[in-house]
Every structure is written in structure tokens, then in C-alpha cells.
Amino acid sequence: RESRDTWYSSLYRLRTRTGMWLTTMLAIIVVLVSTINVWREILSPVAHEILEDNGAYRDNLHAREVCLILSRHGQQYGVPYEMCARNGFGFMASVLGAILSGVAIILHLLARKDAARVVDEIEESCGPILSSEYLSRGHNKHIPLRVEFLLSILLCNTLGLNAFLATGVQGPAAKVGNLYYASWLSFLLCLRICVGCLEELCNIDDDKRNRRLKKKAERQKREEACKRVQSATSENNDLEYVAPKLDHDHIEEETQKAADVAIPKKCEVDDESSTMGAFVAEDILEELRVQRVRHYFFLAIFSTVCMGSALDAAYNTSSDLTPHQKFMIICPAIVAIFAMIQFAFCLKTSWYMQISRFSFGGILSIIMFGLWISNLVLTMSSESTWAVNEIGDIEIANLFYFSWASIITSFLVMMSYIESKLGIQEDDVMTAVWMAVNKVCAVIVGASFHIWQNIEEKCDLEDIQNGAITYCTKTVFAMVVGATGMVAGSTVVASRVLERQFCPGCCSRRVRAHVEAVVSVFLLLLFTVAVASITGIGGPGQSVGDLYYATWLAFVVAIGVFIHCYDRIRLDEIESEPLEVNTLGKLRTIPSESSFMQMQKDC
Q1: Is the pLDDT assigned to residue 205 strictly greater than 60?
Q2: Residue in 361, 433, 363, 447 with CA at minimum distance from that of residue 404
Q3: Do 406 and 372 meet the contact criterion of CB atoms below 8 Å apart?
Q4: Fewer CB within 10 Å, N or C, the chain?
Q5: In this predicted structure, which of 15-19, 360-364, 489-493 has the lowest mean pLDDT?
Q6: Least confident residue range of 81-95, 404-418, 583-597
Q7: Which of 522, 518, 515 is nearest to 554 (CA)?
Q8: Handedness of CA 188, 190, 192, 198 (dihedral sign)
């Protein structure tokens, strides 16, 4: 049973990827069914309608004939001339993806069966301890990791190309729907599998190197301990010692054992404590490395998709490109290059030591976030943008969603360096939450101001001054709500940072929790009214877009902040209750937070 538990623990990543492969296969099946429906409901009927209008109607058209007819005359009937070809590629890509994902699932099942057989054989011949040692040392060559990595790379290229073509301007999934979400979901899941395989391959190499270094350190440690034992023994032999006559041999033997063991134990404790501290620091560094590997990789992918979507939109634009549109193409390309370089540095621990420095990796992350902030302003608010129209409705879904995904990922990367630089601990995560409130409110201000610029000439200032409930009034209200949230969030973040840097401990945790609870209640009431007014019927955020998402996200974050402040106040009250005297005259204390939680579990 012990070896079996160790085996399941060592294959946790394999079991996780098995579930991801199964989910990818289901998403691919959705893509397959959706492409068939597009063919039956749109492409084939339109081709027959074109032939009927031209007096050449006939049944049983081949797929190639349908695509040829639509490429010549489909634009007049609302079907882009490349839509049929892209839908056909999506069908073939989904069939290939279903086959490859099925192969990967079968390999996983065979790997489990083969590994279980190997463990059983070792347990019968060598015992459960050696079988556990066998697994812990990474003797898992029966796991088809490299084969799975090659399958994921092949499938990523196929599904990525399909997602880009299907969701492009002339693709069958240009508008948001089942085919759109399934195409990108299958691609992103396959990317995650690929990154997981790559991480495990690199971790295996790092583990081998760490095992060699650990063995060398243990050997040196044993040699030093032997030298200390020899020196302690020689010193004890030089001392004149008159033993009692009673049990002379036994006492002399015990004394010699104590002399031999005492000194090495003290040194070994010191060595173990220093080694434990080094292991803790190494674990923290390794955890950050794994997080940044994923963030950099997906930031490069998201930025590449944004660049490709902008190029696709520019290809289908008849007029000359404006400077803003050119920047929307160049900026994601620059960020993608930087992110891919940093991703390559994070693959090895020795390389990561360079990129983990704030003077290198931190500055680059701030530059990437600044580039994406400027690009997001142009993408969501510029008059010549491709992502949204003049009132904020989504026009090109790829450019809209992946721009937001890119800026959120770049923000996470930047915050990881800032937290390390400022020494922000895990319990100070609310600083990042308040920064998120500030950022979301900035989006509300930008989106509502963009809408106001397009409707300003049609608005009556007297209605706004009189408080009449109109579209223009709600737009102005959205700008006021966003500005108020920005002021509140910035004030809280500034107070937290200044207190930490210049006056730590000046404000008690309980007082700060009460003040932030008052601010969170105010924001919660404000965003509740904003959700009903802005995203309701007749509001500027009634259609799905950046104002719609930002308003609802601000409301959800305000709820989370209020709940956290309330919980903190309750815990402080429990911990700060004074001592009481019970009926027996003995002191009774209120338990601490940890003991209180343990008492709840016991009850």
C-alpha cells in the first residue's frame, strides 16, 4: 500500500494531464460538430441559392464545388469568400485533433498499467521501501513524456492555426459562439499540456543535477563529521580519568560513546538548520520560477494572437493604415519577443537566476506592462480601432479578448517582481486587490469616456444638469463612478505602501480593517447602483464590451474586499478579547485563531 500511494503521488502530473487531454478531446468534438453545422446550415444552402438565382440549380454539390461558388459570388450573399475554405480546414483539423488526443489518452492508460506492473514486481522482489525509492528517484522511463510532448506540439500547431483562421475576419467563428469558444479552448488546453510536459522535462534535468549536488554535500558532511569525531576522541584520550571500580568496563564504554556522539550531533544540528533554510529559499525561488514560466509563455502566445488578429484586420481593410493601427500591430510583436526571451531564461534554474533580478526581469516586466497599457487604450478607445465600434460593442472578438488576457498576464508578471522587491507577504495580498480595483475603475472611465466622445454632440446638457435618466446621463454617471473608484483604490494603496515603507506599525491591523471596510461598503453600494444603471436596458454598457465586463468585475471585487475586511475584523475581535475568570476562580482565555479553528474541527 505504501508503494502504491507513492506511485499515485509520483504520477499526479500524469493524471492531471489525462484529464486535460480528455477535456481537449471534448472541445475538439464540439469544433467538429460546429463545422458540420456551419456547412449544413449556411454554406451549402447559400451555394444552392446562388445556383438557383443564376438558373443553374442542381443537387448533390461536392465540397470543392460549393467553395468555388462561394469564393466567386458568396460576398454578395453575406458569406466571405474564404469562409468555406477555413471551415473545411477546421473540419480536417478537428478530425486530426480527435485522433491525436485519443492516442495520448491511450498512452496514458497504458503507462499507468505498465508502471503498476513494474512497481508490483519491485515490491515482490525488493520490498515496498525499495519500490518507493525507485519511484522517488525518477525511474519512470515507461511514462511516454517525450512522445506526449511531440504530440502536444503537433496538435498545438494544428489547433492554433485552426483557431486563428476560424475566428478571423472571414472565418466561420468571427462572431462569439460555440465554435469560437471551442476553437480557442482546445488550443489553450493543448498549450497548457505542452507547457506541463516541458516543465516536467526541465524539472527532471534539474532534479538530476540537484541529486548530484546533494550527494556531494552529504559526502562532504560525513567526512567533516568523521574528522570531528576523531579529534574529539583524541582529546578525550588525553584526559586523565579515574573510573570507579564498580562496573568499570560498562561506564567507560558509555562515556566513550557519549564523547563520540555529543559533538557531532551539535554540528549536525547546525548543518541541518542551515540546510533547511537553504531548502526553504530554494523552494520559494522554484515556485516563482514555475509561475513565471507559465506567465511568460502565455503572455507571448496572447500577444502573438493579438498581432495576428491586427494583421488580419489590416489585410481586410481597404484604406491606408493610421499610426494608431500600425502601433496596434508593432506593440504586441515587441512584447511577444520579450516574453519569449524571458520564457527561455526561466527554463533552467541557472539561467533563471539572471532573469529573477529586479534590475533585469523586473524592469522588462514594467516595460511590457506599459506597452500593453498604451496599446489597450488605443485598442479600446481609439477612433480607428478594429476591436470595438463607437459605442463599445465588440467587432473583432480575438483582438478584444486577447488584449485583455495579455494585459492581465503582464500585470501578474509585473506584480510578482514588485512583491519580491517591496517584500509584500502573502497576508498583504489585499494591496494587490485594491490595485485591481483601481485598474478596473480606470477601464470604466476610459470606456465611458470613449462612448461620450461619440455621443457628445447628440446629448442635451440641460437634461444632464436636471438629472434626467437618459443614455447621456448614464454615460456621465459611469465616468463619475469610475473616477470615484480610482480615487478610493489609489488612496488605500498609497496608505498601505507608505505605512510599510516609512512607518511600519503606526496603524494597527484592526483600525486599518475598519477603515477599509467603510470604504468597501461605500464602493459596494456605488457599484450596485452602477451595475443596475450602466448595464441595464438603455445604459452605455448594455451590450457586451469592456464597459459591461469592467462594471460587473468592479462589483464582484468590491464584494470580495468587504468579505475579507469583515472576516479580519471578526478575527481581531476574537483574538483581542480579555482574560475572564470562571466560577472556579481560574483564568479562562479565548483561544487563538489556529486553536479556535482546531476546536471547531474537533467539535
Answers
A1: no
A2: 447
A3: yes
A4: C
A5: 15-19
A6: 583-597
A7: 522
A8: negative
Measured distance CA(312)–CA(251) in Å, rounded: 89
Question: What 8-state DSSP symbol labels residue 382?
Answer: -
Of the ranges 40-44, 54-58, 259-263, 318-322, the best mean pLDDT one: 40-44
pLDDT digit string (tens) for 433-467? 888 888 888 888 888 887 887 777 777 766 555 55
**Using CA atoms, how far apart are residues 198 and 204, in angstroms rounded to an integer?**
10
Average pLDDT over residues 228-247: 52
Mean residue pLDDT across the chain: 75
**Range list of H helices, 239-247:** none
pLDDT band at 381 (very low <50, low <70, confident <90, very high): low
Whether the predicted model's global pTM rises above the 0.85 cut: no
CB 547, CB 392: distance < 8 Å: yes
Residue with cell 488605500: 492
In which element (H, E) is residue 580 found?
Answer: strand 580-581
Spatial neighbors of 519 by CB under 8 A, at least 6 apart, are 488, 492
Rounded to whole angstroms, the Cα distance separating 109 from 234 reads 61
Residues in contact with 143: Cβ distance below 8 Å, sequence separation at least 6, in sequence order = 11, 14, 111, 115
For residue 601, the SS3 value is helix
Q: How many Cβ atoms from other residues are within 10 Å of residue 64's Cβ? A: 10
Please tell me the predicted confidence (pLDDT) of residue 30.
92
pLDDT at 532: 86
Do residues 376 and 324 lie in contact, with contact meaning Cβ atoms separated by under 8 Å? no
Phi then psi for 232, rounded to 5 degrees? -65, -40
N-terminal to C-terminal alpha carbon distance within the chain = 31
**Contact (Cβ atoms closer than 8 angstroms) between residue 441 and residue 482:** yes
Distance CA 284, CA 589 (A): 36
Longest dimension (CA), the chain: 127
What is the phi-psi region of residue 346: left when phi exceeds 0, alpha when psi lies from -120 to 50, beta otherwise?
Answer: alpha
| Helix axes of 509-534 and 471-502: crossing angle, nearest 10 degrees | 160
Give the span between the Cα atoms of 79 and 172, in whole angstroms.
Answer: 9
Look-up of cell digits 476574537? 574
Cα–Cα distance between 382 and 389 in angstroms, integer?
10
Query: Which of 200, 12, 38, 185 lies closest to 101, judged by CA?
Result: 185
DSSP-derived 3-state class of residue 468: coil
On the question of pLDDT at 200 being above 80, the answer is no
The SS3 call for residue 71 is helix
The answer to whether residue 389 scores a pLDDT higher than 80 is no
- What b/e string do you get for 458-487 counting C-beta neighbours within 10 Å, with b at 16 or more? ebeeeeeeeeeeeebbbbbbbbebbbbbbe
Which residue from 101, 109, 120, 102 is spatially nearest to 2, judged by alpha carbons?
120
Is the confidence at residue 401, as pLDDT, over 50? Answer: yes
Contacts of 200 (CB under 8 A, 6+ apart): 13, 145
